[in-house]
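Weekly sync, protein design subgroup
Attendees: M.S., D.O., the rotation student, P.L. (late)

Item 1: inverse folding check
M.S. brought a backbone from last month's batch and wanted to see whether the design step gives back something sensible before we order anything. D.O. pointed out we never logged the input encoding, so this time it goes straight into the notes. Structure tokens as presented (402 positions):
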């Protein structure tokens, strides 16, 4: 079978960023063929190395091993003239730069977008920051939790009348911004190849969160409606939420149409409830959501989660166990879809990490290595890519640049 090149084969990415958002965009590029050079401070490296669950056998956490995938590690102190000079030489032979410093920081060091564009006019630069490169809040620091709050998601999360809660992963905005960042890179490279111009991608951490808030904006503008915390359900459909089964497990059921509700009624042995004169119409169910949810809850209380899944599947009712990671690990569907893959680590042995998304039939992505040791590729990059000799590399180390 003919092996096609990966979509980003031949693309070189310089990842100057820290933690998750912009580095995640670089990781996605690496999964689909790009050469990714992670540039880290010589002393401590990316703070992500110390974030999350300690691995125990290495100085790096499992978060770093998973999210630092498919990268080479080059140590470079960008604050030094020597380090900035090396970066500029790398930019001349690269395609993409990813960064997430506070706006103005790289400019202060003489390596902002305009500085690098002068070296490589075809350069694509991804800049992810808390509040973007422009606007009255652009200089403020932002993390994912701040993005969830500012972007409107945290306000929606929790039980009615209760406090706003963490929307699942505290790093959700980082990952979503990374996906949008990767999309921006691909779009900009498409334009570069077509029109021979580079450009800057300006992405605020809160913007992907705000972009995913359904119809909240036009609804508020039209009638002043402010959606609040909805707990286990939603105001858009009913029954559409999480329910407790008789064996103490939670399942999710989604009925976004009258036809789906009709199928659920058959599964419950209550077909009469789907009559339009009773609960067969969506607006009626939404107006009587407490009653409808209680009917479903009473039904599920009399069976195990496995029984509920079987019955719902038999009637084509959308239903899933609310999975913990323990449920996911070993699940045959996750395995069949290669949703997680196992790589070998010299000290830890087998380390499973999330797989590549999306699945391309002809040019699939892959994970070549876990997060690298700090500076493990410094000599390789400096000698093979820039042609520096041992004495020059030693001089850079003596100057604290590498």
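Designed sequence read out in the meeting:
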């Amino acid at each position: 079978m003919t092996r096609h090149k990966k979509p980003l084969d031949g693309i070189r990415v310089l990842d100057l960023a820290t933690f998750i958002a912009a580095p995640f965009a670089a990781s996605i590029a690496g999964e689909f063929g790009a050469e990714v050079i992670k540039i880290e401070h010589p002393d401590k490296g990316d703070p992500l190395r110390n974030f999350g669950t300690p691995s125990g056998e290495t100085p790096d956490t499992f978060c770093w091993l998973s999210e630092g995938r498919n990268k080479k590690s080059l140590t470079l102190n960008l604050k030094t003239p020597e380090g900035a000079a090396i970066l500029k030489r790398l930019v001349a032979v690269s395609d993409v730069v990813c960064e997430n410093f506070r706006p103005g920081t790289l400019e202060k060091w003489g390596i902002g977008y305009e500085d690098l564009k002068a070296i490589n006019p075809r350069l694509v630069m991804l800049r992810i920051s808390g509040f973007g490169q422009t606007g009255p809040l652009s200089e403020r620091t932002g993390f994912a939790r701040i993005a969830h709050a500012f972007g409107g998601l945290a306000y929606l999360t929790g039980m009615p009348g209760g406090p706003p809660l963490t929307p699942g992963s505290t790093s959700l905005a980082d990952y979503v911004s990374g996906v949008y960042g990767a999309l921006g890179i691909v779009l900009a490279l498409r334009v570069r190849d077509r029109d021979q111009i580079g450009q800057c991608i300006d992405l605020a951490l809160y913007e992907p969160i705000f972009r995913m808030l359904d119809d909240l904006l036009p609804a508020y503008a039209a009638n002043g409606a402010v959606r609040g915390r909805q707990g286990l359900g939603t105001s858009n459909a009913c029954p559409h939420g999480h329910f407790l089964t008789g064996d103490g497990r939670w399942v999710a059921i989604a009925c976004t149409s009258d036809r789906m509700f009709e199928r659920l009624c058959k599964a419950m042995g209550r077909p009469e409830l789907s009559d339009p004169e009773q609960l067969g119409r969506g607006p009626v169910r939404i107006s009587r959501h407490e009653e409808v949810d209680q009917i479903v809850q009473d039904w599920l209380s009399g069976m195990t989660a496995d029984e509920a899944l079987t019955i719902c599947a038999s009637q084509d009712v959308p239903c899933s166990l609310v999975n913990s990671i323990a449920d996911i690990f070993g699940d045959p569907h996750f395995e069949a879809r290669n949703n997680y893959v196992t790589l070998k680590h010299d000290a830890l042995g087998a380390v499973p990490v999330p797989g590549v998304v999306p699945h391309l039939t002809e040019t699939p992505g892959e994970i070549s290595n876990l997060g690298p040791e700090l500076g493990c590729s410094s000599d390789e990059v400096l000698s093979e890519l820039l042609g520096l000799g041992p004495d020059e590399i030693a001089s850079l180390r003596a100057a604290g640049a590498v």
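Discussion: The first helix runs from residue 21 to 31. DSSP finds 17 helices and eleven strands in the chain.
Action: P.L. to compare against the previous round before Friday.
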